[in-house]
Amino acid sequence: MATVTTPIKAEARDLNFFYSNGARALKGITMPLYENKITALIGPSGCGKSTFLRCFNRMHDLYPGNQYQGQIVMHPDNTNVLDQGVDPIEVRMRISMVFQKPNPFPKSIYENVAYGLRVRGENNKRIMDDKVEEALKGAALWNEVKDRLHDLAFNLSGGQQQRLCIARALATDPEIMVFDEPTSALDPIATANIEELMVELRSKLTILVVTHNMQQAARVSDYTAYMYLGELIEYDDTDKIFTNPSRKETEDYITGKFG
Amino acid sequence: MATQLMQAPVQLTISPRLAKNIRRNVKERVIELILMLAALVAVATTFAIVGILLYESLSFFKTVSVIDFFTDTQWTPLFEDAHYGIMPLVSGTLTTSAIALAVAVPIGTITAIFLSEFASHKTRETIKPILELLVGVPTVVFGYFALFFVTPMLQKIYPDLPSFNMLGAGIVMGVMIIPYIASLSEDAMRAVPMSMREGSYAMGATRFQTALKVVTPAAVSGIVAAYILAISRAVGETMVVAIAAGQQPNLTFNPVDSAATITAYIVQVAMGDLPHGSVGYQSIFAAGLVLMIMTLSFNVIGHWVRKKYRESY
User: Fold this and answer.
1) Fold designation for B87-308
2) Which of A116, A259, B163, B203 has its CA 20 to 30 A from that of A103?
Protein backbone atom coordinates (compact mmCIF):
# COMPACT_ATOMS: atom_id res chain seq x y z
CA MET A 1 0.00 0.00 0.00
CA ALA A 2 1.00 3.52 -0.68
CA THR A 3 0.70 4.94 2.80
CA VAL A 4 2.15 2.30 5.01
CA THR A 5 3.03 4.88 7.64
CA THR A 6 -0.62 5.81 8.34
CA PRO A 7 -1.48 4.63 11.87
CA ILE A 8 -4.03 1.87 12.17
CA LYS A 9 -7.14 2.62 14.22
CA ALA A 10 -8.73 -0.80 14.15
CA GLU A 11 -8.25 -4.06 12.37
CA ALA A 12 -10.24 -7.16 11.67
CA ARG A 13 -8.23 -10.33 12.13
CA ASP A 14 -9.43 -13.50 10.47
CA LEU A 15 -13.02 -12.50 11.15
CA ASN A 16 -15.77 -15.03 10.52
CA PHE A 17 -19.40 -14.46 11.20
CA PHE A 18 -22.29 -16.91 11.42
CA TYR A 19 -25.97 -16.02 11.49
CA SER A 20 -28.28 -17.98 13.77
CA ASN A 21 -29.34 -20.19 10.86
CA GLY A 22 -25.75 -21.30 10.49
CA ALA A 23 -25.05 -19.28 7.35
CA ARG A 24 -21.46 -18.13 7.22
CA ALA A 25 -21.66 -14.51 6.18
CA LEU A 26 -18.02 -13.51 6.58
CA LYS A 27 -15.08 -15.66 5.64
CA GLY A 28 -11.78 -14.94 7.26
CA ILE A 29 -11.66 -11.20 6.76
CA THR A 30 -8.45 -9.47 7.71
CA MET A 31 -8.20 -5.77 7.05
CA PRO A 32 -7.03 -2.63 8.84
CA LEU A 33 -8.88 0.67 9.19
CA TYR A 34 -6.51 3.61 8.99
CA GLU A 35 -6.84 6.43 11.46
CA ASN A 36 -8.55 9.61 10.22
CA LYS A 37 -9.25 8.02 6.88
CA ILE A 38 -12.43 7.02 5.12
CA THR A 39 -12.62 3.40 4.13
CA ALA A 40 -15.38 2.35 1.73
CA LEU A 41 -16.81 -1.16 1.46
CA ILE A 42 -18.26 -2.01 -1.93
CA GLY A 43 -19.66 -5.17 -3.41
CA PRO A 44 -22.90 -6.66 -4.71
CA SER A 45 -25.95 -7.08 -2.45
CA GLY A 46 -25.55 -9.92 0.01
CA CYS A 47 -21.76 -9.90 -0.13
CA GLY A 48 -21.49 -9.29 3.61
CA LYS A 49 -20.45 -5.63 3.67
CA SER A 50 -23.21 -4.61 6.05
CA THR A 51 -22.68 -7.72 8.14
CA PHE A 52 -19.01 -6.81 8.44
CA LEU A 53 -19.79 -3.22 9.33
CA ARG A 54 -22.25 -4.25 12.00
CA CYS A 55 -19.62 -6.42 13.67
CA PHE A 56 -17.75 -3.27 14.65
CA ASN A 57 -20.39 -2.05 17.07
CA ARG A 58 -21.65 -5.52 17.95
CA MET A 59 -25.10 -4.91 16.47
CA HIS A 60 -25.39 -8.64 15.82
CA ASP A 61 -25.63 -9.17 19.58
CA LEU A 62 -29.21 -7.93 19.43
CA TYR A 63 -30.40 -11.07 17.72
CA PRO A 64 -29.95 -14.40 19.46
CA GLY A 65 -27.83 -17.11 17.93
CA ASN A 66 -25.43 -14.94 15.92
CA GLN A 67 -21.80 -15.85 16.35
CA TYR A 68 -18.52 -14.07 15.82
CA GLN A 69 -15.20 -15.76 15.32
CA GLY A 70 -11.91 -13.94 15.14
CA GLN A 71 -11.08 -10.46 16.31
CA ILE A 72 -11.67 -6.80 15.70
CA VAL A 73 -8.88 -5.05 17.53
CA MET A 74 -9.06 -1.40 18.37
CA HIS A 75 -5.92 0.66 18.78
CA PRO A 76 -4.16 2.13 20.64
CA ASP A 77 -5.45 0.03 23.56
CA ASN A 78 -5.46 -3.29 21.69
CA THR A 79 -8.99 -4.17 22.75
CA ASN A 80 -10.71 -6.95 20.89
CA VAL A 81 -14.22 -5.54 20.69
CA LEU A 82 -15.65 -8.98 19.93
CA ASP A 83 -14.29 -10.48 23.15
CA GLN A 84 -17.03 -11.94 25.32
CA GLY A 85 -15.62 -10.03 28.27
CA VAL A 86 -16.02 -6.69 26.51
CA ASP A 87 -19.25 -4.85 27.20
CA PRO A 88 -21.03 -4.19 23.88
CA ILE A 89 -22.47 -0.99 25.33
CA GLU A 90 -18.94 0.34 25.91
CA VAL A 91 -18.01 -0.65 22.37
CA ARG A 92 -20.98 1.25 20.97
CA MET A 93 -19.90 4.33 22.86
CA ARG A 94 -16.55 4.26 21.06
CA ILE A 95 -17.82 3.13 17.69
CA SER A 96 -21.03 4.82 16.66
CA MET A 97 -23.23 4.06 13.72
CA VAL A 98 -25.33 5.86 11.12
CA PHE A 99 -28.00 3.80 9.43
CA GLN A 100 -29.29 3.41 5.91
CA LYS A 101 -32.61 5.04 6.59
CA PRO A 102 -32.65 8.08 8.87
CA ASN A 103 -34.00 6.76 12.17
CA PRO A 104 -34.49 9.69 14.54
CA PHE A 105 -36.25 8.96 17.81
CA PRO A 106 -39.77 10.25 18.47
CA LYS A 107 -38.32 13.17 20.41
CA SER A 108 -37.29 16.75 19.86
CA ILE A 109 -34.22 17.63 17.81
CA TYR A 110 -32.41 18.53 21.02
CA GLU A 111 -33.34 15.30 22.80
CA ASN A 112 -32.30 13.23 19.82
CA VAL A 113 -28.78 14.63 19.97
CA ALA A 114 -28.71 14.49 23.77
CA TYR A 115 -29.83 10.85 23.80
CA GLY A 116 -26.37 9.30 23.93
CA LEU A 117 -25.40 11.57 26.81
CA ARG A 118 -28.63 10.91 28.67
CA VAL A 119 -28.21 7.14 28.51
CA ARG A 120 -24.77 7.67 29.99
CA GLY A 121 -26.39 9.45 32.94
CA GLU A 122 -25.32 12.97 31.97
CA ASN A 123 -27.86 15.47 33.31
CA ASN A 124 -25.96 18.73 33.56
CA LYS A 125 -27.92 21.17 31.44
CA ARG A 126 -24.93 23.36 30.59
CA ILE A 127 -22.70 20.49 29.46
CA MET A 128 -25.62 19.05 27.52
CA ASP A 129 -26.37 22.35 25.76
CA ASP A 130 -22.74 22.72 24.74
CA LYS A 131 -22.49 19.16 23.47
CA VAL A 132 -25.71 19.39 21.52
CA GLU A 133 -24.62 22.61 19.85
CA GLU A 134 -21.18 21.24 19.09
CA ALA A 135 -22.60 18.03 17.60
CA LEU A 136 -25.17 19.87 15.50
CA LYS A 137 -22.45 22.19 14.23
CA GLY A 138 -20.27 19.18 13.51
CA ALA A 139 -23.08 17.70 11.45
CA ALA A 140 -23.64 21.02 9.60
CA LEU A 141 -27.17 21.22 10.88
CA TRP A 142 -26.92 23.89 13.55
CA ASN A 143 -27.85 26.87 11.38
CA GLU A 144 -30.96 25.16 10.09
CA VAL A 145 -32.33 24.03 13.44
CA LYS A 146 -30.97 26.38 16.10
CA ASP A 147 -34.31 28.22 16.35
CA ARG A 148 -36.39 25.10 16.67
CA LEU A 149 -34.36 22.73 18.77
CA HIS A 150 -37.49 21.61 20.59
CA ASP A 151 -39.48 20.71 17.50
CA LEU A 152 -40.14 17.06 16.81
CA ALA A 153 -37.32 15.53 14.78
CA PHE A 154 -39.81 13.97 12.36
CA ASN A 155 -40.58 17.44 11.01
CA LEU A 156 -37.14 17.65 9.42
CA SER A 157 -36.53 16.64 5.81
CA GLY A 158 -34.90 13.30 5.03
CA GLY A 159 -31.47 14.81 4.51
CA GLN A 160 -31.75 16.85 7.69
CA GLN A 161 -32.87 13.76 9.60
CA GLN A 162 -29.81 11.90 8.40
CA ARG A 163 -27.56 14.76 9.49
CA LEU A 164 -29.40 14.73 12.80
CA CYS A 165 -28.54 11.06 13.14
CA ILE A 166 -24.91 11.94 12.42
CA ALA A 167 -25.06 14.68 15.06
CA ARG A 168 -26.57 12.17 17.47
CA ALA A 169 -23.70 9.80 16.79
CA LEU A 170 -21.14 12.62 17.12
CA ALA A 171 -22.42 13.87 20.47
CA THR A 172 -20.73 11.11 22.40
CA ASP A 173 -17.25 11.69 20.93
CA PRO A 174 -16.80 8.34 19.22
CA GLU A 175 -13.44 7.28 17.79
CA ILE A 176 -14.84 5.42 14.83
CA MET A 177 -18.05 6.03 12.94
CA VAL A 178 -19.55 3.39 10.72
CA PHE A 179 -22.04 4.38 7.99
CA ASP A 180 -24.35 1.76 6.52
CA GLU A 181 -25.32 3.12 3.09
CA PRO A 182 -26.05 6.52 4.61
CA THR A 183 -27.34 8.18 1.46
CA SER A 184 -29.36 5.45 -0.23
CA ALA A 185 -32.63 7.03 0.97
CA LEU A 186 -31.65 10.60 0.09
CA ASP A 187 -31.88 12.85 -2.95
CA PRO A 188 -28.70 13.98 -4.79
CA ILE A 189 -28.39 17.30 -2.95
CA ALA A 190 -28.78 15.76 0.48
CA THR A 191 -26.36 13.05 -0.61
CA ALA A 192 -23.77 15.67 -1.57
CA ASN A 193 -24.21 17.31 1.85
CA ILE A 194 -23.64 14.05 3.67
CA GLU A 195 -20.59 13.22 1.56
CA GLU A 196 -19.10 16.64 2.22
CA LEU A 197 -19.78 16.14 5.90
CA MET A 198 -18.04 12.78 5.94
CA VAL A 199 -14.94 14.31 4.40
CA GLU A 200 -14.99 17.03 7.06
CA LEU A 201 -15.45 14.53 9.88
CA ARG A 202 -12.41 12.60 8.75
CA SER A 203 -10.14 14.98 10.63
CA LYS A 204 -11.85 14.01 13.89
CA LEU A 205 -12.48 10.32 13.52
CA THR A 206 -12.03 7.19 11.51
CA ILE A 207 -14.82 6.33 9.10
CA LEU A 208 -16.00 3.08 7.59
CA VAL A 209 -18.75 3.36 5.01
CA VAL A 210 -20.76 0.77 3.15
CA THR A 211 -22.05 2.00 -0.17
CA HIS A 212 -23.76 0.69 -3.26
CA ASN A 213 -22.81 3.79 -5.13
CA MET A 214 -19.36 3.37 -6.64
CA GLN A 215 -19.06 7.03 -7.55
CA GLN A 216 -19.62 7.76 -3.89
CA ALA A 217 -16.85 5.42 -2.86
CA ALA A 218 -14.57 7.02 -5.44
CA ARG A 219 -15.50 10.53 -4.34
CA VAL A 220 -15.21 10.29 -0.58
CA SER A 221 -13.01 7.40 0.43
CA ASP A 222 -9.27 7.07 0.87
CA TYR A 223 -9.32 3.30 0.81
CA THR A 224 -11.74 0.91 -0.79
CA ALA A 225 -12.42 -2.72 -0.07
CA TYR A 226 -14.24 -4.94 -2.53
CA MET A 227 -16.13 -7.83 -0.98
CA TYR A 228 -17.83 -10.75 -2.64
CA LEU A 229 -19.68 -13.68 -1.06
CA GLY A 230 -18.37 -12.91 2.40
CA GLU A 231 -14.77 -12.63 1.32
CA LEU A 232 -12.52 -9.65 1.04
CA ILE A 233 -11.38 -9.74 -2.57
CA GLU A 234 -9.25 -6.63 -2.74
CA TYR A 235 -8.38 -3.76 -0.43
CA ASP A 236 -6.26 -0.83 -1.54
CA ASP A 237 -6.05 2.90 -2.12
CA THR A 238 -9.29 4.12 -3.66
CA ASP A 239 -7.40 5.55 -6.61
CA LYS A 240 -5.76 2.24 -7.29
CA ILE A 241 -8.97 0.24 -6.96
CA PHE A 242 -10.82 2.46 -9.38
CA THR A 243 -8.05 2.94 -11.93
CA ASN A 244 -5.93 -0.12 -11.80
CA PRO A 245 -7.33 -2.93 -9.66
CA SER A 246 -5.05 -5.92 -9.33
CA ARG A 247 -7.86 -8.49 -9.27
CA LYS A 248 -9.98 -9.34 -12.28
CA GLU A 249 -13.14 -9.68 -10.12
CA THR A 250 -12.74 -6.16 -8.79
CA GLU A 251 -12.31 -4.75 -12.24
CA ASP A 252 -15.40 -6.59 -13.50
CA TYR A 253 -17.48 -5.21 -10.67
CA ILE A 254 -16.24 -1.67 -11.01
CA THR A 255 -16.63 -1.54 -14.75
CA GLY A 256 -20.13 -2.96 -14.46
CA LYS A 257 -19.42 -6.26 -16.18
CA PHE A 258 -20.65 -7.97 -13.08
CA GLY A 259 -22.92 -7.15 -10.18
CA MET B 1 -55.31 28.93 -37.21
CA ALA B 2 -58.66 28.46 -35.65
CA THR B 3 -60.40 28.13 -38.98
CA GLN B 4 -57.85 25.60 -40.12
CA LEU B 5 -58.56 23.46 -37.14
CA MET B 6 -62.28 23.69 -37.77
CA GLN B 7 -61.87 22.57 -41.36
CA ALA B 8 -61.82 18.83 -41.33
CA PRO B 9 -64.87 17.57 -39.49
CA VAL B 10 -64.05 14.06 -38.36
CA GLN B 11 -66.82 11.69 -37.50
CA LEU B 12 -66.07 10.63 -33.91
CA THR B 13 -67.17 7.11 -33.11
CA ILE B 14 -66.69 4.91 -30.07
CA SER B 15 -65.38 1.49 -30.82
CA PRO B 16 -67.45 -1.28 -29.21
CA ARG B 17 -64.53 -2.22 -27.04
CA LEU B 18 -64.40 1.23 -25.43
CA ALA B 19 -68.17 1.57 -25.00
CA LYS B 20 -69.46 1.78 -21.45
CA ASN B 21 -70.07 -1.63 -20.05
CA ILE B 22 -73.49 -1.15 -18.54
CA ARG B 23 -73.78 -4.62 -17.05
CA ARG B 24 -70.48 -4.23 -15.23
CA ASN B 25 -71.43 -0.80 -13.96
CA VAL B 26 -74.73 -2.01 -12.60
CA LYS B 27 -73.05 -4.92 -10.89
CA GLU B 28 -70.51 -2.61 -9.28
CA ARG B 29 -73.25 -0.32 -8.05
CA VAL B 30 -75.21 -3.18 -6.54
CA ILE B 31 -72.17 -4.48 -4.71
CA GLU B 32 -71.40 -1.00 -3.46
CA LEU B 33 -74.95 -0.65 -2.19
CA ILE B 34 -74.82 -3.98 -0.33
CA LEU B 35 -71.56 -3.02 1.31
CA MET B 36 -72.94 0.33 2.36
CA LEU B 37 -76.08 -1.25 3.81
CA ALA B 38 -73.95 -3.56 5.92
CA ALA B 39 -72.04 -0.58 7.26
CA LEU B 40 -75.29 1.27 7.87
CA VAL B 41 -76.59 -1.42 10.25
CA ALA B 42 -74.08 -0.42 12.89
CA VAL B 43 -74.52 3.29 12.32
CA ALA B 44 -78.31 3.07 12.34
CA THR B 45 -78.28 1.02 15.54
CA THR B 46 -76.12 3.62 17.24
CA PHE B 47 -78.44 6.40 16.19
CA ALA B 48 -81.48 4.42 17.28
CA ILE B 49 -79.97 3.83 20.72
CA VAL B 50 -79.07 7.49 21.12
CA GLY B 51 -82.54 8.47 19.91
CA ILE B 52 -84.36 6.22 22.36
CA LEU B 53 -82.10 7.30 25.22
CA LEU B 54 -82.76 10.94 24.43
CA TYR B 55 -86.50 10.46 23.96
CA GLU B 56 -87.07 8.54 27.18
CA SER B 57 -84.71 10.82 29.10
CA LEU B 58 -86.66 13.82 27.88
CA SER B 59 -89.87 12.58 29.46
CA PHE B 60 -87.87 11.74 32.58
CA PHE B 61 -86.57 15.30 32.77
CA LYS B 62 -90.13 16.60 32.52
CA THR B 63 -90.73 15.20 36.01
CA VAL B 64 -87.27 15.62 37.47
CA SER B 65 -85.36 18.84 36.92
CA VAL B 66 -81.90 18.60 35.40
CA ILE B 67 -80.49 20.58 38.32
CA ASP B 68 -81.90 18.14 40.87
CA PHE B 69 -80.60 15.29 38.75
CA PHE B 70 -77.04 16.53 38.99
CA THR B 71 -77.08 18.11 42.48
CA ASP B 72 -79.26 15.82 44.59
CA THR B 73 -77.03 13.58 46.67
CA GLN B 74 -79.50 10.73 46.91
CA TRP B 75 -80.70 8.22 44.39
CA THR B 76 -83.82 6.52 45.72
CA PRO B 77 -86.22 6.13 42.78
CA LEU B 78 -87.88 3.08 44.29
CA PHE B 79 -88.71 4.72 47.63
CA GLU B 80 -91.88 6.52 48.59
CA ASP B 81 -89.86 9.72 48.94
CA ALA B 82 -88.07 9.41 45.61
CA HIS B 83 -84.83 11.28 44.98
CA TYR B 84 -83.20 11.35 41.59
CA GLY B 85 -79.63 12.51 42.10
CA ILE B 86 -77.31 10.69 39.71
CA MET B 87 -74.13 11.59 41.60
CA PRO B 88 -74.11 8.55 43.94
CA LEU B 89 -74.17 6.29 40.90
CA VAL B 90 -71.51 8.36 39.13
CA SER B 91 -69.28 8.21 42.20
CA GLY B 92 -69.66 4.43 42.35
CA THR B 93 -68.85 4.11 38.66
CA LEU B 94 -65.83 6.39 38.85
CA THR B 95 -64.45 4.78 42.00
CA THR B 96 -64.67 1.20 40.74
CA SER B 97 -63.23 2.26 37.37
CA ALA B 98 -60.40 4.14 39.02
CA ILE B 99 -59.48 1.11 41.13
CA ALA B 100 -59.62 -1.09 38.06
CA LEU B 101 -57.36 1.25 36.12
CA ALA B 102 -54.96 1.57 39.04
CA VAL B 103 -54.56 -2.20 38.82
CA ALA B 104 -54.67 -2.70 35.08
CA VAL B 105 -52.66 0.23 33.70
CA PRO B 106 -49.36 -0.49 35.50
CA ILE B 107 -49.60 -4.27 35.24
CA GLY B 108 -50.86 -4.19 31.67
CA THR B 109 -48.22 -1.73 30.50
CA ILE B 110 -45.37 -3.54 32.22
CA THR B 111 -46.61 -6.83 30.77
CA ALA B 112 -46.65 -5.24 27.31
CA ILE B 113 -43.11 -3.90 27.71
CA PHE B 114 -41.92 -7.28 28.92
CA LEU B 115 -43.59 -9.22 26.12
CA SER B 116 -42.51 -6.84 23.39
CA GLU B 117 -38.98 -5.94 24.46
CA PHE B 118 -37.63 -8.58 26.81
CA ALA B 119 -39.40 -11.89 26.32
CA SER B 120 -37.98 -14.41 23.88
CA HIS B 121 -40.11 -15.41 20.94
CA LYS B 122 -41.10 -18.62 22.70
CA THR B 123 -42.08 -16.95 25.95
CA ARG B 124 -44.17 -14.40 24.12
CA GLU B 125 -45.95 -17.03 22.07
CA THR B 126 -46.78 -18.89 25.28
CA ILE B 127 -47.86 -16.00 27.47
CA LYS B 128 -49.90 -13.95 25.03
CA PRO B 129 -52.54 -16.59 24.24
CA ILE B 130 -52.93 -17.34 27.94
CA LEU B 131 -53.39 -13.65 28.63
CA GLU B 132 -55.95 -13.38 25.87
CA LEU B 133 -57.78 -16.34 27.37
CA LEU B 134 -58.69 -14.01 30.26
CA VAL B 135 -60.86 -12.05 27.83
CA GLY B 136 -62.91 -15.17 27.24
CA VAL B 137 -63.84 -15.66 30.90
CA PRO B 138 -67.49 -14.66 31.36
CA THR B 139 -67.78 -11.51 33.45
CA VAL B 140 -70.27 -13.16 35.76
CA VAL B 141 -67.50 -15.56 36.78
CA PHE B 142 -65.29 -12.58 37.58
CA GLY B 143 -68.15 -11.21 39.68
CA TYR B 144 -68.34 -14.31 41.84
CA PHE B 145 -64.57 -14.45 41.95
CA ALA B 146 -64.61 -10.94 43.44
CA LEU B 147 -67.39 -11.70 45.90
CA PHE B 148 -66.27 -15.11 47.15
CA PHE B 149 -62.51 -15.04 46.71
CA VAL B 150 -61.02 -11.56 46.57
CA THR B 151 -63.25 -9.88 49.15
CA PRO B 152 -62.72 -12.63 51.78
CA MET B 153 -58.97 -12.29 51.20
CA LEU B 154 -59.16 -8.54 51.61
CA GLN B 155 -61.21 -9.04 54.77
CA LYS B 156 -58.30 -10.90 56.30
CA ILE B 157 -56.22 -7.76 55.92
CA TYR B 158 -59.00 -5.31 56.67
CA PRO B 159 -61.66 -7.04 58.79
CA ASP B 160 -64.18 -4.16 58.68
CA LEU B 161 -64.60 -4.54 54.94
CA PRO B 162 -68.25 -5.21 54.04
CA SER B 163 -68.99 -8.24 51.85
CA PHE B 164 -70.10 -5.93 49.11
CA ASN B 165 -67.42 -3.35 48.43
CA MET B 166 -65.96 -1.39 45.56
CA LEU B 167 -62.38 -2.39 46.31
CA GLY B 168 -62.80 -6.09 45.57
CA ALA B 169 -64.97 -5.41 42.55
CA GLY B 170 -62.53 -2.81 41.23
CA ILE B 171 -59.50 -5.05 41.64
CA VAL B 172 -61.14 -7.94 39.82
CA MET B 173 -62.36 -5.62 37.11
CA GLY B 174 -58.77 -4.44 36.80
CA VAL B 175 -57.54 -8.00 36.34
CA MET B 176 -60.25 -8.45 33.77
CA ILE B 177 -59.05 -5.55 31.61
CA ILE B 178 -55.30 -6.28 31.90
CA PRO B 179 -55.38 -8.34 28.68
CA TYR B 180 -56.86 -5.45 26.73
CA ILE B 181 -54.10 -3.09 27.82
CA ALA B 182 -51.30 -5.64 27.59
CA SER B 183 -52.28 -7.08 24.25
CA LEU B 184 -53.05 -3.82 22.46
CA SER B 185 -50.04 -2.00 23.92
CA GLU B 186 -47.81 -4.88 22.93
CA ASP B 187 -49.12 -4.73 19.37
CA ALA B 188 -48.38 -1.00 19.30
CA MET B 189 -44.86 -1.49 20.64
CA ARG B 190 -44.04 -4.30 18.26
CA ALA B 191 -45.13 -2.10 15.39
CA VAL B 192 -42.28 0.29 16.21
CA PRO B 193 -39.72 -0.35 13.48
CA MET B 194 -36.63 -2.32 14.44
CA SER B 195 -34.44 0.40 12.92
CA MET B 196 -35.49 2.75 15.71
CA ARG B 197 -34.48 0.22 18.36
CA GLU B 198 -31.18 -0.38 16.59
CA GLY B 199 -30.59 3.35 16.57
CA SER B 200 -30.99 3.40 20.32
CA TYR B 201 -28.78 0.36 20.92
CA ALA B 202 -26.15 1.81 18.62
CA MET B 203 -26.03 4.86 20.88
CA GLY B 204 -25.04 2.60 23.74
CA ALA B 205 -28.47 2.35 25.35
CA THR B 206 -29.45 -0.71 27.32
CA ARG B 207 -32.51 -2.81 26.59
CA PHE B 208 -34.42 -1.13 29.38
CA GLN B 209 -33.44 2.39 28.29
CA THR B 210 -34.46 1.54 24.73
CA ALA B 211 -37.82 0.17 25.85
CA LEU B 212 -38.55 3.15 28.07
CA LYS B 213 -37.10 6.08 26.17
CA VAL B 214 -37.59 5.10 22.55
CA VAL B 215 -40.08 2.28 22.04
CA THR B 216 -42.73 3.42 24.53
CA PRO B 217 -42.83 7.05 23.31
CA ALA B 218 -42.94 5.82 19.73
CA ALA B 219 -45.88 3.58 20.54
CA VAL B 220 -47.68 6.06 22.78
CA SER B 221 -50.66 6.60 20.50
CA GLY B 222 -51.40 2.89 20.44
CA ILE B 223 -50.86 2.58 24.17
CA VAL B 224 -53.25 5.46 24.86
CA ALA B 225 -55.80 3.82 22.59
CA ALA B 226 -55.48 0.69 24.73
CA TYR B 227 -56.03 2.71 27.91
CA ILE B 228 -59.12 4.35 26.47
CA LEU B 229 -60.61 1.04 25.49
CA ALA B 230 -59.87 -0.23 28.98
CA ILE B 231 -61.55 2.80 30.57
CA SER B 232 -64.63 2.33 28.44
CA ARG B 233 -64.73 -1.32 29.43
CA ALA B 234 -64.39 -0.46 33.10
CA VAL B 235 -67.02 2.27 33.08
CA GLY B 236 -69.48 0.10 31.18
CA GLU B 237 -68.76 -3.12 33.06
CA THR B 238 -71.90 -4.47 34.70
CA MET B 239 -71.76 -7.97 36.09
CA VAL B 240 -68.74 -7.65 38.34
CA VAL B 241 -69.95 -4.51 40.06
CA ALA B 242 -73.57 -5.63 40.22
CA ILE B 243 -72.50 -8.81 42.00
CA ALA B 244 -69.61 -7.67 44.14
CA ALA B 245 -69.90 -3.92 44.80
CA GLY B 246 -73.40 -3.85 46.24
CA GLN B 247 -76.66 -2.35 45.03
CA GLN B 248 -77.00 0.58 47.43
CA PRO B 249 -76.46 3.94 45.75
CA ASN B 250 -74.05 5.70 48.01
CA LEU B 251 -72.33 9.01 47.37
CA THR B 252 -68.81 8.01 48.31
CA PHE B 253 -65.37 7.69 46.77
CA ASN B 254 -64.16 5.43 49.56
CA PRO B 255 -63.15 2.09 48.03
CA VAL B 256 -64.05 0.09 51.14
CA ASP B 257 -67.69 1.22 51.03
CA SER B 258 -70.32 -0.61 49.13
CA ALA B 259 -72.00 1.34 46.38
CA ALA B 260 -73.97 0.94 43.19
CA THR B 261 -72.72 1.94 39.79
CA ILE B 262 -74.82 3.27 36.94
CA THR B 263 -74.72 -0.10 35.23
CA ALA B 264 -75.62 -1.98 38.39
CA TYR B 265 -78.66 0.26 38.86
CA ILE B 266 -79.79 -0.23 35.29
CA VAL B 267 -79.61 -3.99 35.68
CA GLN B 268 -81.50 -3.83 38.93
CA VAL B 269 -84.37 -1.84 37.47
CA ALA B 270 -84.43 -3.53 34.09
CA MET B 271 -84.80 -6.91 35.83
CA GLY B 272 -87.39 -5.59 38.27
CA ASP B 273 -91.07 -5.01 37.70
CA LEU B 274 -91.40 -1.25 37.44
CA PRO B 275 -94.30 -0.35 35.15
CA HIS B 276 -93.35 1.03 31.76
CA GLY B 277 -93.66 4.79 31.57
CA SER B 278 -93.18 5.35 35.30
CA VAL B 279 -90.54 7.82 36.39
CA GLY B 280 -88.51 5.01 37.92
CA TYR B 281 -88.55 3.17 34.62
CA GLN B 282 -87.57 6.27 32.71
CA SER B 283 -84.75 6.94 35.14
CA ILE B 284 -82.71 4.08 33.69
CA PHE B 285 -82.67 5.87 30.37
CA ALA B 286 -81.39 9.03 31.98
CA ALA B 287 -78.74 6.95 33.78
CA GLY B 288 -77.88 5.24 30.51
CA LEU B 289 -77.52 8.60 28.82
CA VAL B 290 -75.08 9.75 31.50
CA LEU B 291 -73.12 6.53 31.08
CA MET B 292 -72.96 6.99 27.35
CA ILE B 293 -71.82 10.58 27.69
CA MET B 294 -69.09 9.42 30.07
CA THR B 295 -67.69 6.77 27.73
CA LEU B 296 -68.11 9.07 24.76
CA SER B 297 -66.09 11.81 26.41
CA PHE B 298 -63.32 9.32 27.28
CA ASN B 299 -63.26 8.26 23.66
CA VAL B 300 -63.08 11.86 22.49
CA ILE B 301 -60.23 12.58 24.89
CA GLY B 302 -58.47 9.46 23.70
CA HIS B 303 -58.95 10.40 20.09
CA TRP B 304 -57.51 13.84 20.79
CA VAL B 305 -54.52 12.46 22.70
CA ARG B 306 -53.85 9.96 19.93
CA LYS B 307 -53.89 12.68 17.33
CA LYS B 308 -51.64 14.92 19.37
CA TYR B 309 -49.01 12.25 19.89
CA ARG B 310 -49.37 10.41 16.63
CA GLU B 311 -46.01 9.26 15.37
CA SER B 312 -45.11 8.54 11.81
CA TYR B 313 -42.06 6.42 11.39
Assistant:
1) MetI-like fold (1.10.3720)
2) A259
User: What's the structural domain count of chain A?
Assistant: 1
Q: What confidence tens digit (pLDDT) does each residue in B77-119 have?
A: 777 788 888 898 999 999 999 999 999 999 999 999 999 999 9
The answer as to whether A28 is a domain residue is: yes
% residues pLDDT > 70 (chain A): 98
Integer CA distances (angstroms), A27 to A15, A18, A231, B64, B124, in order: 7, 9, 5, 85, 34
Is A221 part of a structural domain of the chain? yes
The SS3 assignment for A246 reads coil
ipTM > 0.95 for the complex: no
Interface of A with B (CB under 8 A): 57, 59, 62, 64, 89-90, 92-93, 96-97, 99, 101, 103-107, 115-116, 118-120, 154, 165, 168-169, 172
Q: Where are the alpha helices (DSSP H) in chain A?
A: 49-56, 88-94, 109-119, 125-138, 142-145, 158-170, 188-201, 214-220, 238-243, 248-254
Interface contact A169-B312, CB threshold 8 A: no
Q: Is the confidence at residue B313, as pLDDT, over 50?
A: no
| Domain ranges, residue A229 | 8-254
Exposure string over A58-87, b if 16+ CB within 10 A, otherwise e = bbbbbeeebebebbbbbbeeebebbeeeee
Domain ranges of chain B: 22-63, 87-308
